[in-house]
Amino acid sequence: MSLLPSRRAWPGQATPTPANHFRQDINGLRALAVVAVILYHFDVGGLAGGFAGVDVFFVLSGYLMAGIIGTGLQRGDFSVLAFYWARARRILPALLLVCAVVLAIGWLLLAPNDYKTLGRHARQSLAFLSNHLYLKEAGYFDSASQAKWLLHTWSLSVEWQFYLALPLILALAWKLLPRRGTLVGVHLALFSCSLALCIALTASHPQKAFYLLPARAWEMLLGGLCFLLCSNLGLPATARRLLEAGGLALIGASVFLLDESAAWPGALALLPTLGTAMVLAARRETSPWCTHGAVQWLGTRSYSLYLWHWPLVAWLFHAGHRQTPLWIAAALLLTLILGELSYRLVERPTRRWLGTGRRAFAVAGLAGLMILAGYLAQVVVRAKGFPQRMPADILAMREQALQGTPRNEECLSKGAGCVYGGPDIQAMLIGDSHAASVVTAAQLALPDADQGIYLRAAPACLPVPGLHIREHPRDNPEDTCNRLRRQLPAELGDAPGRVPLIIVTRTSVYPLGYNGIDQNRKNRPQAYISSPVDEPSSEWLEAFARLYIDHACALARQRPVYLVRPIPEMRVDVPDVMSRKMLQGKAPQVTLSRADYEARNGFVWSVQNRAREACGVQILDPLPYLCDEGQCYGGREGQAYYADDNHLNAAGSRLLAPMFAEVFADLSTAQADPPR
After folding, report:
1. Which of the two residues, 606 and 494, has the higher pLDDT score?
2. What's the rounded Cα separation, in Å, for the pair 463 and 456?
3. Whole-model pTM?
4. For the chain, what is the domain count?
5. Cβ contacts of residue 42 below 8 Å, gap of 6+?
6. One domain, residues 370 and 425
7. Which of 262, 169, 231, 243 is nearest to 11 (CA)?
8. Cα(482)–Cα(236) distance, rounded to whole angstroms?
9. Residues 414 and 476 in one domain
10. How far apart are CA 444 and CA 429, in angstroms?
11. Per residue in 202-212, is it b (16+ CB within 10 Å) or e — as a string?
12. Which of 117, 209, 459, 474 is close enough to 202 for a disulfide, judged by CB 3.0 to 4.6 Å?
């Protein structure tokens, strides 16, 4: 967002701008932008495209920066370090306070993993790298983003990165060829490249287009071009009014007509950005819409309002009041109050204090505070969110939730074959980490103590020949999944034919992609045949189905084969959500509707059914033990059944012992009544 007032204009204009002149039209644009963003985030007023307010801020930043840098270069007194210090004085104090307050609130309100995540976000926000972090996490428009208390700092990171690069580039260009046309040419070249990249990435990698500076710089460069080329167009009053009206219309159309389904930013972002440039070029500084006292109040405090509004949105989400009108109204009022206090008590005083006296002392003091805050945020991360601060009942629940399969490091992470129970092997259990998470349930179902289960599993591994996994390099023979694939046929050949094979995997991930808390990989299949695919097309799904069925049937020709239906993925970290609910005094229960389960896993069910019809493989269904008619349970009555969002813990695994007992009942029947 734009963070600096307009102070200087280009020397040599027909009507030079005084150094202390404050443009009310720029402040009015700030007001429009911050209101659009805030109302959009609070879901108020039908501003479905309010996110375009950030693009307005980007143009304003570029306009003002071009003015400051260009004026200084032509005057001969521009200093890159002084420029950086001016930006730091303006931006850092209020941001530092917001991060500190949010970390303090998180200590009181957040579950350990949530607090650890907040620490990581605060650290990256203070380093102005949060846009890169959020790129790796959920998309900006995903519902999961509302739980991120500092998500809005992505735009500050983009701007700060722009502030670091632009003066260096322009100063170097000016040194080589000191004329105004040089600055125009540099702006125009960078603008063209960035816009082309933005349009291309929006089509292929929209998250990168949204979060990364190279795809966003054109918006700020457009503002710079507007300053360099349109500061004194000499238009008559009527033309200026029409230009301003057209610009406001484009901004309004963006805010009211666009929505989250738009391919953004891309070419559509030209609407609010060109609109902003048109208003700036019109220079109607006393236009009635922008001179109103309320508009000027909002514009002057736009930075503080922007900083404080999003943590309140995140708090509403955290407290379960995201759709409650009264709570939303209270949060909006609190945004205005905090914005005013931050402006009066932080922004103005610190800008004045840091701009007077010994600069070295001021720089050292502000840098020290930033380093200290970043260090404290890192302490939160390294301490894993300080779980010891939780009440005793929550600590007990979390300790129980993390009780999983014994020998997991040896038997899963290293991919070694392991026997659970006695030496008399009654079944072979193969698959990925889901197989490892339920092996103790299969062991519990064994009729005799001297009987055992042989487990062969590897993380994120579907042991189907011809399928490759994104997370496992094809040419690395020591990779645990590749080693399992290579060694499994011999191990199956050595096992007696009567020993059944049970296959347990997080099957839907491989043809369909991740879901739930791993939003960044959502809908991107994790398996592939010849080369990775980016979406589950019908051709890909049928190819996957054929390989899966052929492999299951090949195994079924050697021994009894049982395919386990997918274990419900809860979409949220179960221990964290239960901790959060217990902190809020709510019933500690986590559920997933059967309808959501069926929508997620219907394809895999159909493939498993086809395998049963093709060659008689048998199917084990965990749902009767984890779900009722309407809901599947991740935890209830203070007990978590999952260690995270998709892996059953020891308590959840025990629920499946009756399911595995079906295998051994079939085995006993077959042994008691051998074929004649």
Report:
1. 606
2. 10
3. 0.78
4. 2
5. 309, 313, 328, 331, 332
6. no
7. 231
8. 73
9. yes
10. 14
11. beeebbebbbb
12. 209
Q: What is the pLDDT at residue 408?
A: 84
- Distance CA(429)–CA(426), nearest Å, equals 10
The candidate with the shortest Cα–Cα distance to 427, out of 666, 136, 622, 76, is: 666
Residue 585 domain-assigned (yes or no):
no
The pair of three-digit structure tokens given for residue 509, joined into one six-digit string: 């991930």
| Whether pLDDT at 11 is above 60 | no
Q: Quick one: pLDDT at residue 557?
A: 93
489 cis-preceded (ω within 30 degrees of 0): no
Residue 459, C-beta contacts closer than 8 angstroms, at least 6 positions apart: 412, 413, 432, 433, 471, 480, 481
Q: Are 331 and 315 in contact (CB under 8 A)?
A: yes
> Residue 610's domain spans which residues?
405-569+592-631+653-668
- Token pair 């839907």: residue: 508
Domain identity same for 531 and 487: yes
Which of these ranges, 12-26, 28-42, 155-169, 660-674, has the smallest mean pLDDT? 12-26
pLDDT in tens, 528-557: 999 888 889 999 999 999 999 999 999 999
Domain shared by 423 and 335, yes or no: no
- Measure the CA angle with vertex 390, ends 386 and 395; round to 5°: 100
Give the CATH number for residue 541.
3.40.50.1110
CA angle at residue 541 from 540 to 545, to 5 degrees?
Answer: 120
Residue 646 domain-assigned? no
Give whole-number Cα distances, 536 to 139, 361, 453, 541, in Å: 19, 58, 35, 6
Structure tokens at 236: 């008559």
Higher pLDDT, 124 or 351: 124
Task: Please give the DSSP secondary-structure letter assigned to residue 495.
Answer: S
